[in-house]
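Hi X.,

You mentioned you wanted examples for the new student's onboarding notes, showing what a folding record looks like when two proteins sit in one file. Here is a clean example. The first protein comes first, with its sequence line followed by its structure tokens.
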Amino acid sequence: METIHKRLEQVRRNIGQVIFGQEQTVEQSLISILAGGHVLLIGVPGLAKTKLVDCLGRVLGLDTRRVQCTPDLMPADIIGSEVLEEGESGRRTFRFIPGPVFCQLLMADEINRASPRTQSALLQAMQEHRVSVAGQTHQLPQPFHVLATQNPLEQEGTYPLPEAQLDRFLLQIDVDYPALAAERQMLIVTTGSADQEPQAVMNGEELQKAQRIVRRIPVGDKVLDAILKMVRAGRSGEGELTDVTKHLAWGPGPRAGQALMLATRARALLQGRLSPSIDDVVALAHPVLRHRIALTYSARAEGVTLAAVIDKLVALLG
């Protein structure tokens, strides 16, 4: 475990040489990958979301592909399709041509610009790590992760992700502007004669080993009870916070608890600890829950925010 922690520290340092002022975003992205999950990155243009995904792929030594989502993108453009070929004997057969989803790290850029039909093509891949084409099932490479980006501005011509697909993302990471010192360093480094290129630290096999270690990290009863208390408090009729649940159209499901269990373990490993603590639950509550609960229309009209609701759930933990 100590060896894996040192490698992960080197991964963070290498990414930090290219991505400036986004330490929390980098940490949460690594947590999600270590936990075997997918990531939804939301932020305005110019915050290095695309560069972060490319950098993660290089440093972790993963086969990385990119799909630029547009309204005319078809499911076959992502998962692949079958073509009819004629051999020398004149016999015709179908041959499957894999799409860009057959990789270890798939970047779906501006995923909300793809049509619902195309978005749904990713559902099976994200959940089952396989795709079905013409009645045949094709396994995806391992490990497999989807890192999708979304622009909160310019909502014209976009298709909001359905709740079923949002729930497949382990974390929703809201990418913010960098601090002054980090932005100053970024301006100096990125406008010079040569950009810093990230160097590979791990490979897919080593990453899978780290993911297996994450699942073996023990979780104490206090942490488990904290996760259950917070998740169930967000459901109508189950929690003690009726002033919170009345504002929610729906609350977090069981997958939210599973995400917190895995993410807290991954955070402990990333920080070199033998087991997660309640502080890990508090730190990861927002990225785990913000896309798994929804406000009612009346709550939004009253100015209630998701962040405020999650803060009240976190406050239950003391």
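Then the second protein repeats the pattern, sequence line and then tokens:
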Amino acid sequence: MNKQEMPVALVTGASSGIGLVTALTLVGAGYRVFGTSRRPANLDNGVVMLVCDVTDDASVQAMVAQVLAQAGRIDLLVNNAGIGLLGGADESSAAQAQALFDVNVFGLLRVTNAVLPAMRRRRQGRIVNLSSILGLIPSPYNALYAATKHAVEGYSESLDHELRAAGIRVVLVEPGVTRTAFDDNLSRPDRPLPLHDAERSRMEALMRGWIAQGDAPEVVAAAVLKAASARVPKLRYAAGRQARQVSWLRRFLPEAMVDRSLRKFNGLPV
């Protein structure tokens, strides 16, 4: 298959972690893959890396224009770029919360809006948005991050209904805890409060333990590929056993049982 016949995928945040493994998985599945990173990255792995800051409209538009100039179309968009924030909900200023939303929600929106005209012209396309189990459940000391993922869930489900008539589908991939570099894309609160010090430290230690035992990024990449290639896609794809369990827990158990379960899991008094 020559380049002109290969389906074209764009993966944001593809320089490391889930994004990198997803990009490589798509290359292995026969896609022509373009990836983005905030800084130049020359990776000899079959992925064409482009610089893009998803918080900047001009940067996003220029990146999408580069992909279209080289490949002529975009068949698959994987919105993966994102950052985390660990801290009490009242330890972050409004400015820090806005910066988090600017990457995780509005960054996703910017890239989607830039890609949609090309997909609409061809009346086909698939958009895979990386959510999280924290798009389904609360998480103490991850309140703002969970809020961004809840926003991605609502946006994606609504957008899918808008785009189906245009031949475009929007789907969600919801990873559980995944083995990635903990500190790479994690922020700390910009106005830490001493009253949270002990509990914040405990939650950070818990999270490090969960990550060490979490799913490999390949589990998430496999879910992305499944979501991308399904002829009739589902709206949501849970990535890994923990994600499937959480999805079932949230949808089918009474609220009081879910509450007790989550508090127990997070080491809080039930």
